[in-house]
Amino acid sequence: MHSYPLKNGNKTLLFSLINDISDKRAYETELLLFKKALEVNSEGVVITDSNGNAQWINNAFSEITGYYLEEVFGKKCEYIKIRHTRSRLL
């Protein structure tokens, strides 16, 4: 809610603007649920921008590839090679 005083001659009026944020809160709750589902997924997940550059990865991605977000952020996924040796994956 935002309120602003308005002067009208000798009178001061209060102008208030109220926004219903219930839809926004429901949307944010749903986004958090999806984020949690991606974080705990045992499959490696990488989210890229429209150019194929990594923007987010889950923990399973790091366990599978050996890369952490700081190392892959902004890089094209096609250049990411798995670091683990075969014996380490087995």
Question: What does the model show?
Answer:
A hairpin with a 5-residue loop joins strand 3 and strand 4. The protein is an alpha+beta fold. It has 4 helices and 4 strands. It is elongated and about 75 Å long. The protein has a single domain, classed as Beta-Lactamase, CATH 3.30.450. A two-stranded antiparallel ribbon has the order 1-2. The protein has a two-stranded antiparallel sheet with strand order 3-4.
List the helices and strands and how they pair.
Layout: E1 2-8, E2 11-17, H1 22-40, E3 46-48, E4 54-57, H2 59-65, H3 69-72, H4 86-89
Antiparallel strand pairs: 1-2, 3-4
Number of domains: 1
Distance between the termini: 57 Å
User: What percent of the residues sit in helical stretches (DSSP H or I)?
Assistant: 25-40%
- Lateral strand order in the biggest sheet: 1-2
CATH class value: Alpha Beta
Task: Bin the strand percentage.
Answer: 15-25%
Question: Briefly, what is this?
Answer:
This protein has helices at about 20-40, 60-65, 70, 85-90; strands spanning about 1-10, 10-15, 45-50, 55.
Task: Based on the model shown, name its key terms.
90 residues, alpha+beta, Beta-Lactamase, two-stranded antiparallel sheet, two-stranded antiparallel ribbon, 38% helix
